[in-house]
Amino acid sequence: MHLAVGTFNLNNLFSRFNFEADISTASTSTVETTTSFTFTDPSGFKLRTYKGRLVKEKPAAVRKLIADRIKRIDLDVLAVQEVEDIDTLRRFVTDDLDGLYKLSALIEGNDPRLIDVGLLSKRPFGGVTSWQFAADPADPTQPVFSRDLLQVEVFSDDRKSRLLTVFVNHLKSHYVPFNVEDPDAEAKRANELRRRQADVAAKIIAAVVRPNSHYVVVGDMNDPPDSEFLAPLTQSPELNLVSGLTNAEETRPSPGSPPPPTALWTERFKASGKPAVYTLMDQVWLSPAVAPSLESAFIDRRTKLGGDGSDHDPSWVVLGL
pTM for this structure? Predict the structure, then answer.
């Protein structure tokens, strides 16, 4: 059987109430009324904000762009990042993906911006495990993962055999707030946290799998595959992971001129006055038992430099299991 497994950062798939309306479209009414809402139980009302600002939902037109891409590549198993919550993910599947996926897995994680990692699948799930409470070696009172390390068992349609264990990541980003006193120190702190996350992820995975286990490690790693900060995971001598995207093909040529120096990229960043940087942040790593089953690999290339609904492009592998 063939199994297509990939990853896609959906770039702030939020579904927030923004309480806006176009008054000009409202029907005229002669009735005057005042309505008051009283919340006697504060726990029953939650207004989600980030740094004092209400984050609005992802517009329908933009959701359609990422949904069209997901429907076109039509994977069996798709890891996702930057999703607000499980209800948002399920509604996205129902309303925007036309029910393409039977199952959705997401457990609320650690991110203060409320972006979580999840998994969509046409195949049955077994266990779903969150490792969000794994301790940071630098401060055991704090969790190490910025979001979560989500572990999901994917089974055959008859549920008699486990096809894969999928480990979904979204490691610490390179974002540095503009108002910090020492940007270089903040960037170093982010890199070191990403290194610790990679190290803890490797140790967790090594503890729960066997040498002949079928598993994949996927997600937005926020660094290139050869990064020293990912090395504790990607070059772990215990795991011996194999990159599934080394020979990935683009679904279309990259936009812009001049073209990127390589086709192996999923995220583009351009600082003002500097050349664009293209990075393969969205990765698929295969266990030694899965690597021989790799048949092909792809990156769905955006049509606009800024991205089609997301600043990331999805990547995936096709396995012959």
Answer: 0.88
Class of domain 2-17+46-320: alpha beta
- 24 phi and psi angles, rounded to 5 deg: -65, -20
Provide the residue ranges of all domains of the chain, joining segments of one domain with +. 2-17+46-320
pLDDT digits (tens, 9 = 90+) for 164-214: 999 999 999 988 776 777 888 999 999 999 999 999 999 999 999 998 999
Give me the amino acid identity at 2: H
Buried b (16+ CB within 10 A) or exposed e, 140-166: eeebbbbbbbbbbbbbeeeeeebbbbb
Q: List the beta bridge partners of residue 299.
A: 250, 315
d(CA 41, CA 54): 21
pLDDT digits (tens, 9 = 90+) for 224-258: 999 999 999 999 999 999 999 999 999 999 998 88
